């Protein structure tokens, strides 16, 4: 397959390098076409995608039903702004609200924007409902978090690459150890705490899973101390971990649910904050918004993307293939204990932890070899490789992929 608009991989890399900001360090592979679980270079080299655009492409690349919804809507109406009503927004809000079981939806665009919106919602609720004194609201976040790149969000980050030379930061955060309930119970008693804000599994930190029962216990603490529980499911949500939401593994229902990425199946940026009336309605007309938030194109795509998740049983598929993947990676670890120290994950959000330092190059070197063998993954930190393919993968494809990974790891020289 050679595309009509042909630009070689070497040319594409050189152009990005010369004209683009250097804010990413990609694996040197250029992608020109995607279909299901596969990606293709301009020269026609075929790869299995094991990153899924950081879990945005859960439904597989260019899913025909999502693309059809995009095309139909793109030919009809794309954007009106929220100065007027549009004929897609209300029905989409109803669809999303019922899909996840909340009263109301606030549609935004990126995952970072949805998180920023949630932070604003939490503060406003804190002042107007919990009666926290003006400008005293505190949000409890946890170490290792990743919620995006805006200034508000990085003010709660513990990752120096997110924060160095970007100060001064937003006050009003207290950072606790992820998974530490004792610390949570102590901090949450401060009457100025308006919310707890966490990921149910920390994807960017390296697929860090908190101790069993942690989320449920935090939910109970939030109820006890009248604090909003805000869960960022931008990466873990929408079937990725083998359930619709990662929170579902512990039967937790956050007061504020934050979604993004796969809400559009990787087609365009669509994110959302969900909450019940008593929380969402603290925001009044003119107090928050976005020109593109809730645009008709995003609405059509989001409904199609969620419909695919349900119709194709993608949560169940993720759970089943995840078991296969972890079983095979655990056997691989037994063969190469010198190379692999941990295998962990839920559904199809998995990590293989390498016997190297965070600054080491083993993750990068292995991902380069995986790419040469037709499988694309990227290290998150030098010593952790995240494996997160589209959820439309078949069992035969998964076995094929495990063979590629096994071959590369078994032959890898430390
Ligand atoms: N929240 C989580 C948990 C994420 O993993 C990410 C992105 O990786 C974001 C928020 C930010 O999303 P976006 O890149 O769309 O702003």
Jot down its keywords.
414 residues, alpha/beta, Aspartate Aminotransferase, domain 1, Aspartate Aminotransferase, domain 2, 4-stranded mixed sheet, globular, binds pyridoxal-5'-phosphate
What does this structure look like?
With 414 residues, the chain is of the alpha/beta class. It folds into two domains: 9-59 and 313-411, Alpha-Beta Complex (Aspartate Aminotransferase, domain 1); 64-311, 3-Layer(aba) Sandwich (Aspartate Aminotransferase, domain 2), CATH 3.40.640. Helix content is 37%, strand content 16%. It is built from 14 helices and 15 strands. The chain has helices at residues 9-19, 52-55, 64-74, 89-100, 111-128, 151-154, 160-163, 181-187, 214-224, 277-280, 296-311, 314-335, 362-372, 395-411, and strands at 33-35, 38-40, 46-49, 104-108, 138-142, 173-176, 193-198, 228-232, 256-259, 271-275, 340-346, 349-354, 375-376, 378-379, 384-387. The strands form three sheets. The protein has a seven-stranded mixed sheet with strand order 4-10-9-8-7-5-6, sandwiched between helices. Strands 1-2-3-13 form a four-stranded mixed sheet. Strand 2 and strand 3 (46-49) form a beta hairpin. The longest helix has 22 residues, at 314-335. The model has no long low-confidence stretch (mean pLDDT 97). The protein binds pyridoxal-5'-phosphate (PLP). The site of pyridoxal-5'-phosphate (PLP) has 15 residues, from helix 5.
Query: Which band does the percent of strand residues land in?
Result: 15-25%
How does the overall form come out from the CA principal axes? globular
What ranges have pLDDT less than 50 throughout 5 or more consecutive residues?
none
- Average residue-wise pLDDT: 97
**What is the CATH architecture descriptor of the largest domain?**
3-Layer(aba) Sandwich
Question: What's the number of helices?
Answer: 14
Radius of gyration: 21 Å
**CATH superfamily membership of the largest domain, which one?**
Type I PLP-dependent aspartate aminotransferase-like (Major domain)
The SSE order reads HEEEHHHEHEHHEHEHEEEHHHEEHEEEH
As for the CATH topology of the largest domain, it is: Aspartate Aminotransferase, domain 2
Distance between the termini: 36 Å
| Spatial order of the strands forming the largest sheet | 4-10-9-8-7-5-6
Report the major sheet.
Answer: 7 strands, mixed
